[in-house]
Write a structure and sequence with these properties.
The structure is a single chain. This protein is of the alpha/beta class and about 550 residues long. Helices cover about 45% and strands about 20% of the residues. The protein is built from 18 helices and 19 strands. It has helices at about 1-15, 40-55, 90-100, 105-115, 135-150, 165-175, 185-200, 220-230, 255-260, 300-320, 335-345, 355-365, 385-395, 400-415, 425-440, 445, 485-495, 520-535; strands at about 30-35, 60-65, 75-80, 125-130, 155-160, 210-215, 235-240, 275-280, 285-290, 295-300, 325-330, 350, 370-375, 380-385, 455-460, 470, 475-480, 500-505, 510-515. A hairpin with a 4-residue loop joins strand 16 (about 470) and strand 17 (about 475-480). Helix 17 packs antiparallel against helix 18 (about 520-535). It is globular and about 65 Å long. The N and C termini lie far apart (about 65 Å). Bound molecules: 2-acetamido-2-deoxy-6-O-phosphono-alpha-D-glucopyranose and magnesium ion. Keywords: Acetylation, Carbohydrate metabolism, Isomerase, Magnesium, Metal-binding, Phosphoprotein. It comes from Potamilus streckersoni.
Length: about 550
Amino acid sequence: MMDAVLQSATRLALEKFPRKSDKFIQYGTAGFRTKGVDLPHVIYRMGILAVLRSKVKKATIGVMITASHNPEADNGVKLIDPMGEMLEALWEDIATRLANVPDADLAGMLSSLIEEEKIDMGQSASVSFARDTRPSSVPLAQALQAGIEVMQGMFQDYGLLTTPQLHYMVRCKNSAGEYGKPTEEGYYEKLTSAFLKLHAQVTHTGRYSGSLHLDAANGVGAMKIREVEKYIEKALTISLYNDGSHGKLNDKCGADYVKTGQCAPNGLPVKAGVKCASFDGDADRIVYFYVDDDGSFHLLDGDRMATLVAGFFQGLIQSTGLDLKIGLVQTAYANGSSTNYITQQLKVPVACVPTGVKHLHHKAQDFDVGVYFEANGHGTVLFSDRAMEKVEGAVVNTGLPSERRAAADKLKTVIDLINQTVGDAISDMLLVETVLNSQGWGIQDWKMCYTDLPNRQSKVTVKDRTVIQTTDAERKTTSPPGLQEAIDKLVAVFNQGRSFVRPSGTEDIVRVYAEADTQVNADKLAYEVSLLVYQLAGGIGEEPKLIS
Ligand code: 16G
Ligand code: MG
């Protein structure tokens, strides 16, 4: 029986989804990602793998087809584990092996996997999947479905969803109604009813503006925001740009473009002082921005959201009187000023972890209330079971002073506003708006909390980027010999200087980050550190140049 299934899986692979090139492909931090035309066999195989994973976990597994902020011709695939979290690392390796095995060896590899992982093939399997708006996502979803069907798995095709919406669905399906309803309406209702309740509680006016200009990167977020609007139009007016009606996905727009280029996206009329935000192509990242009267551009990125949100929760927890441990998780890219502001002004402890959402998410689970954001705009807040119990207990504890109960009730509502499975641009937008409204802040007030240290990022191409090895959450190098000592010497010369280098996880390059008291100094430090990397780590091609 099992052999027959595996033979059919191989036959279908050869007939309809053959592996056309033997180029190696790896399940990286963002799953598999490459040109859409090179993916059918990979995605077919991920359909097979999702069924096996579902049998192992005895739960619904998610599969999202998207290449996030990449150009339209790219595509990708990611598996989602039962609680809506990223696929476990061991299975990332299995996914890589499965994607690269020759077609003819597919049955053999699957059969050893089933044996090694002791998979009970009699166990039923269920997979939920969705895709973004790329043209190639349609045939790729068909390839996925074929892989699921050939393994006799059950499935639900959600069609077009944002990545975080699918994470939410998977969690709902596996938590017996406790997290919410696994439907789009269920998602909108959960988030927006919390948003409206919190909105109604704000009695002051302050400088908050309930109007937002939103760049949806011509991606799937646009159509989902139109749905959100139906629920919240009285509380927040959204002017939507780059909604996919013309213009290409992620083309000179979207969160990644705005963050990397430090400029406003095309397709959005910029007016001085107006609060704006950008989603990325699959709506799991958001950044805010505005321009001043003099045309200068101001970015409010993941670091800013982290400080805004951590400060808000710190205050709210204090008002509840509950003993809850809050913490913030950042990466080495977090601007030094944000870290100082959080630790010194807000007195919230900060943990630093290596780049990549899974590291931040994992660390945030160490706290009762764990806030995490990458500077690029991906982040969320996690609440421990202990925190949930305490908050729910306080809400119904009639012995508590009414202000403390009201604060607990507010905290419980804010928890409903948050997608705890993964960073979610829609949920983060509603959270940021809630916090700004509750503080009576305009976007300029938010910006005034602290001043970013000038910084510069650059890249160096080397023969083999794995010669760079790092420790201390990527803040120091251990190889090649002498590099860290040389960086330390350089940094010491600059006022408020800080610099680190790390091999990229998504491109064949080494990344360099530097910050200092002035832009000229940050540029200079980045340049000098880049030169060191070039000299000590086997640079190839042109020598690094001073960028300014
Ligand atoms: C991936 C990661 C992102 C990280 C980026 C770093 C996920 C879902 N995404 O996009 O968190 O910031 O890689 O890229 O984990 P780099 O290694 O090329 O600098
Ligand atoms: Mg994304």
